Amino acid sequence: MSKELFTFHNGVTIPSIGFGTWQIPNEEAYDSVTMALKNGYTHIDTALAYQNEENVGKAIRDFDIARKDVFVTSKLPAQIKGYQETLDAFDETLTNLGMDYLDLYLIHAPWPWNEIGKDCTEGNIASWKAMEKLYNDGKIKTIGVSNFEIKDIQALLDNCDIVPMANQIPFYIGRDQKDLLDFCKKHDIVVEAYSPLATGQLLDHPVLKEIAEKYDATPAQVAIRYCLEKDTLPLPKSTHEKRIIENRELNFEISAEDLAALDKIEDVRG
Fold first, then answer.
1. Which of 36, 71, 117, 255 sits at 20 to 30 Å (Cα–Cα) from 53?
2. Is 9 annotated as a binding residue?
3. Is 50 designated active site?
4. Active site residue: 50, 105, 194, 226, which one?
5. Can you tell me which family this protein belongs to (predicted)?
6. Predicted pLDDT at 1
7. Alpha-carbon separation of residue 97 from 46, 54, 62, 153 (angstroms)
8. Which CATH number is 115's domain given?
9. What burial letters (b/e) apply to 173-202, b meaning 16+ CB within 10 Å?
C-alpha cells in the first residue's frame, strides 16, 4: 500500500488498514484473527459488545508476534455512560483480551443502540474523562470515539482536556460524510471507516464492477482503496482467507476521474 501508517495528533502511529471483527462470533474469532496476522495484518479491531474479545486476545497472544507489534483497538459499550462505569468496562476488556494495555479505546457510540439519538452528553463527558485518566495513566496509547457526529465531538472539545484522536464511523462509497470528515480533519482526528463494503451490499454495483475491472482488482479492493484515497482508515472484515489476503492488496491508486464516478454512486443502504 502507498500509505502504510496514519499518525494520531499525539504522534502514535496506526497501520493504515485494520482487520475488523464485528459480527465474527467468539468461536470463529480465533481462526479469523490468526489468519489476519498470518497474512500481514498488524491492526486488529474488536469491542466488548462483539463478545469475541477473549478469542481475539488469545489469537494475538498465541501468534508469534510481540505485543508491541500489534495495534489493538477495543470499545466501551454504547449503553455504558459514566466515569466509574467506564473504568470498570475497560478493566473487563483488558481481562478478556489478556493484555495490560490497549493501543486505542473508543466510546462505541454517543447513545445506546436501542435509543439512537438520545442525548447522553453528560454521560459521554464523564466517560471521556475516565478515558483521559486511563490515557494519562499509560493504560491506553490513544483514545477516541465511534459513530460521533459533529455536535457529539464538540461537547467533548468544550468540556474535556484531550481532543479525540480517532472517530470510527460508517464510511463507504455512497456515504462520504463530507462535513464530518472536514470537521475531523480540522481537529486532527483520524477517521476510521467501518463497513467499507457497506456490509457487502456495494459489491454488485455496476459502476464499481466496471472500475474494478479497469484496475484488475476486485470490487472489494476498489471499495477499500476508495476509503484510503479519502484519507480514511478502512476496517474490512472477513472470515475467508482468500478475501482477508485480497483486502490488503491495494497497490494501485484510483484516478481522479474514477473517484468522481464513484462519488456519484448513491448510498446502497438507503
1. 117
2. no
3. yes
4. 50
5. Belongs to the aldo/keto reductase family.
6. 53
7. 10, 5, 12, 28
8. 3.20.20.100
9. bbbbbeebbebbeeeebbbbbbbbbbbeeb
At which residue does the C-alpha cell 471499495 appear? 223
CA atoms of 99 and 54, how far apart (whole Å): 10
Interval 180-232: pLDDT, tens: 999 999 999 999 999 999 988 899 999 999 999 999 999 999 999 999 999 99
235 burial (CB, 10 Å; 0-12 / 13-18 / 19+) is buried
Q: Is residue 243 part of a domain?
A: yes
Structural domain boundaries enclosing 79: 5-200+231-251
Tally of structural domains, the chain = 1
Q: Is 49 part of any domain?
A: yes
Q: For residue 257, tell me if it sits in a domain.
A: no
